[in-house]
Design a protein that fits this description.
Elements lengths: L1 E4 L6 H11 L5 H8 L6 H4 E6 L2 E9 L3 E6 L8 H15 L4 E7 L3 H9 L3 E12 L13 E4 L5 H12 L9 H7 L12 E5 L2 E9 L5 E8 L8 H15 L4 E7 L5 H6 L3 E12 L7
Parallel strand pairs: 10-11
Antiparallel strand pairs: 1-2, 2-3, 3-4, 5-12, 6-11, 6-12, 7-8, 8-9, 9-10
Helix pairs in contact: 1-2
Bound molecules: coenzyme A.
Coenzyme A (COA) binds next to α6, β10, α8 and α9.
Length: 290
């Protein structure tokens, strides 16, 4: 017998197990971070579906703008995805949103088909990139720039510089609390593998790394606009890759997407695309009759 209920933090390991069956890049830590986002009300923004005590599907809506729906491979083709999609749209409308988006791995042609059939269109591409490190990466010196690892007390300056850079393309600005919860306050954040670039006292570039996979993982990259195109991002990435190499990792990964324009930078650093996913979105129709 199938039952729906909202998620609780205790469901995190079961949700991770389910999502892992759909997406090999899922991590327990990122699911925990998503469930703990400041804007999430678990009772209203999440649904978990159980069949005889086994978690077989779930859906999550963030601020009415973005949804995630996962159905276990053994339970596909029974209309659960369609039902959860309708739930996500209803929740988004309730939150006053006018558009709802969802990322789908490009390998999941069935999910893409379902979204298209429901009025969603592809809007952006995200790529997972990886660098294989057979030997220790060489880190170039940066003229007039000093580089050191992230330390306690760097959070606010890093937030201000990175958030300003991301605001060049991101849909909405983030408060410090939400930014920190997604980056430096994560249990998996590794300050010693997160290099910062300074021009004098001024923080002008940052790479933030996480310890989540067998490979090294870079969560964020940003360089102050005034200091672009001088190789600072490249230098910081290579510094982080070398740090991971010295800890015994032989590969390092990161995600980027088509709105950032950063793909060629990562390819020139020696990374190549492992897989891609597409962001689909749809305008939501508000019923004005009532
Ligand atoms: C993406 C971003 C981090 C790049 O920072 P950057 O320091 O300008 O990057 P680099 O200087 O290392 O490389 C940028 C380009 O300059 C070129 N470059 C590198 N060294 C150079 C040098 N000494 N002189 C001239 N050009 C140089 C690189 O080849 C690269 O060209 P490409 O894009 O054609 O490959 C920066 O634009 C940014 O913060 N953007 C907003 C936030 C964002 O989108 N972050 C990425 C999220 S995934």
């Amino acid at each position: 017998m199938m039952r729906d209920r909202p998620a609780t933090p205790d469901d995190t390991p079961a949700i991770h197990k389910l999502v892992s069956a759909c997406d090999p890049d899922s991590s327990l830590d990122s699911i925990a971070a998503d469930l703990a986002r400041p804007a999430i009300v678990l009772a209203r923004d999440t649904v978990v579906v159980h069949d005889d005590g086994e978690l077989v599907a779930w859906a999550w809506v963030h601020m009415g703008r973005r949804a995630q729906v996962n159905v276990h491979p053994d339970y596909r083709g029974r209309g659960i995805g369609t039902r959860l999609l309708a739930w996500a749209e209803a929740r988004s409308l309730e939150l006053g949103s006018s558009r709802l988006g969802q990322n789908v791995p490009d390998s999941r042609t069935d999910a893409a088909k379902l979204l298209r059939a429901n009025g969603y269109e592809p809007k952006a591409t995200a790529w997972l990139l990886e660098i294989a490190m057979e030997r220790e990466p060489e880190v170039p010196a940066l003229d007039g720039i000093t580089v050191r690892s992230f330390r306690d007390g760097d959070g606010l300056a890093a937030y201000q510089m990175m958030e300003k850079a991301f605001n060049e393309w991101q849909q909405r600005p983030h408060e410090y609390g939400e930014w920190a919860q997604q980056t430096i306050e994560r249990e998996t954040f590794v300050p010693e593998l997160s290099p910062l670039a300074f021009a004098g006292e001024r923080l002008v570039g940052a790479v933030l790394s996480l310890d989540v996979f067998a490979q090294g993982y870079v969560e964020r990259v940003a360089v102050d606009r005034e200091f672009r195109n001088r190789g600072i991002a490249r230098g910081l990435l290579l510094e982080a890759f070398r740090g991971f190499y010295r800890q015994g990792r032989r590969a390092c990964r990161l995600w980027t997407h088509s709105d950032t324009g950063a793909l060629s930078l990562y390819e020139r650093v020696g990374m190549s695309v492992v897989r891609s996913s597409t962001h689909f979105s749809k305008p939501l129709q508000h019923d004005h009759r009532g």
